[in-house]
Amino acid sequence: MKAKNTEFKIAVLFILLFLASLVPLMLLSKYNYPCADDFGFSAYSHIAWENSHSIIQVLKGAWNTTIERWWGWQGTFSSIFVMALQPAIWGEAGYSLVPWIMIGAMSISTLFFFNIVLRKILEVRTPIYISISMIYLFFAVQCMIDKTQGFFWYNGATHYMLPHCAALFLIGLLLQILINPVPKKYTFFLACVIAFLVGGSNYITGLTVLILFLTALLLLLYHKNKRNFYVLTVPFLFFILAFLLNTLAPGNSVRQEEMMIRPGIIKSILLSFYYSTEYITNTWFDWTYLIFLLFLIPFIWEIVKTAGKRFSFRAPLLVLIYSYCLISSMFTPSLFATGEAGGGRIFNIIFLDFLLLVIGNMFYFLGWLYNHIPQLQTLSESCLEQREIKFYFLGLFCLTAFIAILYIKVNPNYFTTPSAVSSLISGEAAAYGKEASERTELLHASLKDDLSIKLFTVHPYLLYYSDIAEDPGDWKNKSMARYYQKKSIIGINSQ
Q1: What angle do CA 411, 396, 292 make, to 5 degrees?
Q2: Which residues make Cβ contacts (< 8 Å) with residue 225, sequence separation at least 6?
Q3: Minimal CA–CA distance to 10: which of 157, 169, 181, 127?
Q4: C-alpha distances out from residue 181 to 126, 178, 384, 404, Å
Q5: Which of 13, 134, 272, 478 has the fewest CB atoms within 10 Å, counting from its CB?
């Protein structure tokens, strides 16, 4: 269907707004430095590069880290391998790429996923697809639950954000395979590879993909679609193989011995429903979700008008219940393993999947209304081409700006971009970067085996995740000492 002029302008506006919101984050990235697990998981790789400057040796170091952790700490082998390749191993300046990598991966995977679902399957106009993608990405970046662990701390983001992005690619590829009578061989091969990698990543993403695989296979069986059932089975087997290697790793037992509180599987499932309800409706829910929905409605409505007649939308309540169960299941792995609902990096991917489910449920509910109210089917003209839509979006932008300013006044870190702007303008980002740079120079230049290092005196919200301790026996100190090939490192308070 031919794109309309106003739709195109709106799409361009959303692209520009999203790109503009990223500028302060990219300016802030030059002050980003590794910390905590960044050192522990990449020590072999970093030492290999320092000693040989050989990519092959670096990859061997990452492989050795993966094997060592698989046997002694955790089974998430694909995540560990990527953790071992954190950008600072080539030089600390490389760590400034972390936000680019994370936001870039999230953006590309989202655009790919929506391209398959909206353009290939639902056949909506390109400006509609772009606008929905930009609204989702803007809201995801600005309202991420833990912004530091989502975009600036490599180790945490690699273990959760990147597998989430890989899962979006996987779902998009599988949908592309299922809708094509003769799928391309490289697409099928790529789907199998990514399925294997996702199976070896974090357990939240792994369990979610497992549920989606089983759901798809059951639906294909129900509809007696043998061709697609057998096609989907192949990448599913690759996923299961990796998932079993992951969950049955000896290191998981070692790690579990340190967990004092471990509810059983039944209690963990029940608690998952509780925490899902608690966090989504009480802890996280605020006016920003309403703004998100209001921005999406006109575009979702255009999708319904384009593709609504091709679907029956018979069970909106069932879809809602399934979505609730799916999002609740994301709390289960952490509850089962540690007795806790999870940390910021876990909440990040739950948040992202929740936004996707909101969009899906909105489409399904509006589609149900469209098919059950005949008068709505007579509205053929695009609502985005009507004069009133300009006032609608103008009002929404004004409302968003007004409430956002109020929130930023109280908490500058409430949104990601204002937090970056605040750190840049106040000078705390530069001060943190100066302290981190001086520390790095000392670690590289000193010939001493035992070092005393000043603790950070400034803690920018986005840049600072953790610091070493005064105790040289602290695991963070040991990790840093191992990374820089020192005997011990002591943190000293400079104040």
Answers
A1: 65
A2: none
A3: 127
A4: 24, 7, 34, 48
A5: 13
Q: Is 35 helix (H, G, I), strand (E, B) or coil?
A: coil
pLDDT, tens only, 375-427: 666 666 667 767 778 888 899 999 999 988 998 988 999 999 999 999 999 99
Q: Could you read off the pLDDT of 274-291 as tens digits, one per residue?
A: 999 988 888 777 888 889
The span from the first CA to the last CA of the chain, in angstroms, equals 65
**For residues 416 and 151, is the Cβ–Cβ distance under 8 A?**
yes
- From CA 32, how far away is CA 402, in angstroms rounded? 31
- The CA distance from 384 to 109, in Å, is 26
Strand bridging mode 488-492 / 450-454 = parallel
Angle CA(367)–CA(165)–CA(46) in degrees, nearest 5?
A: 170
C-alpha span between 8 and 422 (Å, rounded): 33
Structure tokens at 99: 């936000």
Residues in the chain: 495
pTM for this predicted structure: 0.92
Backbone angles phi, psi at 52, to 5 degrees: -125, -25
Taking CA atoms, 293 is separated from 161, 298, 347, in Å, by: 24, 10, 20
Tell me if 491 sits within 8 A of 477, measured CB to CB.
Answer: yes
Q: Residue 302: which of 14, 17, 10 has the closest Cα?
A: 10
> At 16, is the secondary structure helix, strand, or coil?
helix
Q: How many Cβ atoms are within 10 Å of 276's Cβ, its own excluded? A: 22
C-alpha–C-alpha distance, residues 192 and 238, integer Å: 6
